[in-house]
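Section 5.1 Outputs to date
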Amino acid sequence: MSVQKIKEEIQQLELRIKFLKIRAKKIQQSCHHQYDGNQFYETCKKCGKVNVLYY
């Protein structure tokens, strides 16, 4: 495998990751959250969104 093909594959994977991050963000924005957690953070049981409660 040549270096050019590796670079092309990396670029394709980076675009796929970017697409998936956008998709996950949209899912989290439209979720009707059901949080579970402790005094430091809570996590949605449905979409995995985390809210930090204590810094």
